[in-house]
UniProtKB/TrEMBL annotation:
The protein's role, per its UniProt record: Catalyzes the phosphorylation of hydroxymethylpyrimidine phosphate (HMP-P) to HMP-PP, and of HMP to HMP-P.
Pyridoxamine kinase/Phosphomethylpyrimidine kinase domain ranges (all copies): 42-289
GO MF annotations, alphabetized: ATP binding; hydroxymethylpyrimidine kinase activity; phosphomethylpyrimidine kinase activity
Record's protein name: Bifunctional hydroxymethylpyrimidine kinase/phosphomethylpyrimidine kinase
Organism the protein comes from: Arthrobacter glacialis
NCBIfam families: HMP-P_kinase (TIGR00097)
CDD domains in alphabetical order: HMPP_kinase, TenA_C-like
InterPro entries, A to Z: Haem_Oase-like_multi-hlx, HMP/HMP-P_kinase_dom, PM/HMP-P_kinase-1, Ribokinase-like, Thiaminase-2/PQQC
Biased composition (Low complexity): 1-10
Region (Disordered): 1-45
Catalysis performed (reactions): 4-amino-2-methyl-5-(phosphooxymethyl)pyrimidine + ATP = 4-amino-2-methyl-5-(diphosphooxymethyl)pyrimidine + ADP; 4-amino-5-hydroxymethyl-2-methylpyrimidine + ATP = 4-amino-2-methyl-5-(phosphooxymethyl)pyrimidine + ADP + H(+)
Domain annotation Thiaminase-2/PQQC: ranges: 325-509
Record's keyword terms, sorted: ATP-binding, Kinase, Nucleotide-binding, Thiamine biosynthesis, Transferase
């Protein structure tokens, strides 16, 4: 009999990564995907198919469930497990796929090798466009939910899986290695598993100690994306793994991007953990609050607030790309005086912007966010300003503060002085977000530019991955602040964001306005005023 930790054979050469079948719904994206959970039942409702159905529904999916096993369990432990005849599972699966187009499958507790064979055969025949496998082995309570001998069956199932979501114990068992002692070791194991089986791996670090709960999405080609969330101080973690994987499967069918799906699911899970105590279920590890967004209908869900603000600043985004400054910068025809003016104003702006980021750091509710903003403030001074000064040494120019710069920094400082944390975050965000968008587009244009470009080295640094990542974090922080805040605070955030977005347009327009003569025009400062 195999023990849990004996070594599985690694494949000699990695199989090709699995792709969704052509023209599949995964590629098109469906708003209400039909998601099938193949898992065990938890009658206390926190884990297994019950958790999956809630997680799928909470994300707008149509949930279906085929039962592999029935457990008698509650929040304190698993009392017994009953596995119905596998022929009956095969019938359930057949009944569903004969009638219904399945957009995604989430697989949870399978229990025995026979169950795995039935599921593997069915997957090989039906080839659903999204398959997420949560390799359930042990419940939160410590009770075993998989026969040790079934591990080989699990490895074979990886052949039909797009994403596998092991916790650190499950990852070690799948590889036949000792359990990782820290996140770096777990990441190394995730890379091995992904490469050996040509599958994407979501390494979950929830069981490792630390203030942060780290997860990493590891692709079979070695690409890694790390996701982090503050550890919620709660005993109510029953069903976190089930719920996360079911949410990711649903989101993947909607969005067609694993990293986006994991980010959304993790952010949803954090609030479900934070509000789990409101449910008051059981004496042990209670369930998470799957429907927190539905039940608190006044609060925006996930990224709804940032998406709304992004749409609301469409006029400003279009205006930026229509400006002579941006068009000429992209084409390489921008006059060096205009470029120098922009650099000088940006340098002046950044030194105040850094102070406002430091204010966000001072107001931040968690150490992680405090560090994030402090890092941004430092980066502004050390990296960005140094870069500007270096460029400015080649383009001497007037270093006096221009009118747009003055209005923009006055606005930021006003919010920093009297605004809430959410308002300060919303005020500083357009500088990240619109700059990242401009950078992305200009960098793309630059890559297709043939010949010598006078601003080539500047544009080459424009689309910086770290900056794009920081922008995503800043957006997520704003969404979290919006969810926590009152409707009144969200109005303040919306106004702060809108003013800054308009000043971004004016800022890019300022060099031409300056050289064309301010006096000849009506003052081109923010249409919204400040
Ligand atoms: N206390 C917590 N606070 C925030 N996130 C958590 C907490 N515990 C677990 N998570 C997250 O829940 C998910 C499940 O992780 P984990 O507990 O490692 O797996 P499993 O539930 O399968 O044992 C991961 O995204 C992990 O980061
Ligand atoms: C039927 C069933 N499936 C899975 C789990 C694991 O869930 P968790 O590890 O999150 O408690 C469980 N306890 N019961």
């Amino acid at each position: 009999m195999e023990t849990l930790l004996s070594a599985p054979p690694l494949l000699d050469s990695p199989p090709p990564a699995r792709e969704a079948s052509p023209g599949s719904r995964q590629q098109r994206g469906v708003s209400h995907p039909r998601v099938l959970s193949i898992a065990g039942s938890d009658p206390s409702g926190g884990a297994g198919i019950q958790a999956d159905i809630k997680a799928i529904s909470a994300h707008g999916g149509y949930a279906m469930a085929a039962l592999t096993a029935l457990t008698a369990q509650n929040t304190t432990g698993v009392h017994s497990v009953h596995v119905p005849p596998v022929a009956f599972l095969a019938e359930q699966l057949e009944a569903i796929s004969a009638d219904i187009d399945i957009d995604a499958v989430k697989i949870g507790m399978l229990g025995t090798a026979e169950v795995m064979t039935v599921v593997g055969d069915w997957l090989a025949r039906t080839r659903p466009p999204v398959v997420v496998l949560d390799p359930v082995m042990v419940a939160t309570s410590g009770d075993e939910l998989m026969a040790p001998a079934a591990r080989q069956g699990l490895l074979r199932l990886l052949e039909s899986t797009h994403l596998v979501t092991p916790n650190i114990l499950e990852l070690a068992v799948l590889l036949g290695q000792p359990q990782a002692k820290n996140f770096d070791e777990a990441l190394g194991q995730g890379l091995q598993l992904a490469a050996a089986h040509g599958v994407a791996v979501l390494v979950k670090g929830g069981h490792l100690p630390g203030e942060e709960c780290l997860d990493a999405l590891v692709q079979h080609d070695g690409t890694v994306e790390v996701f982090t969330a503050p550890r919620v101080d709660t005993p109510n973690t029953h069903g976190t793994g089930c719920s996360l994987s079911a949410a990711v499967a649903t989101l993947q069918a909607q969005k067609g991007d694993w990293a986006v799906s994991v980010r959304h699911a993790k952010s949803w899970l954090s609030v479900a953990l934070e509000t789990a105590h409101e449910l008051n279920v059981g004496e042990g590890a209670g369930p998470i609050n799957h429907f927190h967004a539905l039940w608190d209908s006044a609060a925006p869900t996930l990224d709804a607030f940032s998406q709304q603000l992004w749409q609301e600043c469409e006029v400003q985004r279009e205006a930026i790309f229509g400006l002579d400054f941006i068009k000429e910068l992209a084409a390489g025809t921008l006059h060096s005086d205009h470029f120098a003016y922009y650099l000088a104003q940006d340098a002046l702006y950044l030194s105040t912007y850094s102070r406002v980021l430091a204010r966000a750091s001072a107001l931040a509710p968690t150490e992680v966010e405090q560090k994030f903003w402090a890092g941004g403030a430092q980066n502004c001074l050390e990296v960005e300003l140094a870069l500007h000064r270096d460029w400015l040494s080649h383009y001497p120019t007037d270093m006096r503060q221009g009118p747009v710069t003055k209005h923009y920094v006055d606005h930021l400082q006003g919010v920093a002085f009297s605004g809430s944390y959410g308002e300060v975050v919303a005020a500083v965000l357009p500088c990240y977000w619109l700059y990242a968008e401009v950078g992305r587009v200009l960098h793309q244009d630059y890559l297709s530019f043939s010949g010598e470009h006078p601003y080539g080295t500047w544009l080459a640094t424009y689309a910086d991955d770290d900056f794009a990542q920081a922008t995503e974090t800043a957006v997520a922080i704003m969404d979290a602040a919006a969810r926590r805040g009152s409707a009144r605070e969200r109005e303040g955030m919306r106004a702060a964001f809108a003013h800054s977005a308009q000043y971004e347009v004016d800022f890019f327009a300022a060099p031409h306005s300056f050289f064309d003569g301010w006096a000849a025009k009506s003052a081109p400062i923010g249409a919204l005023g400040d």
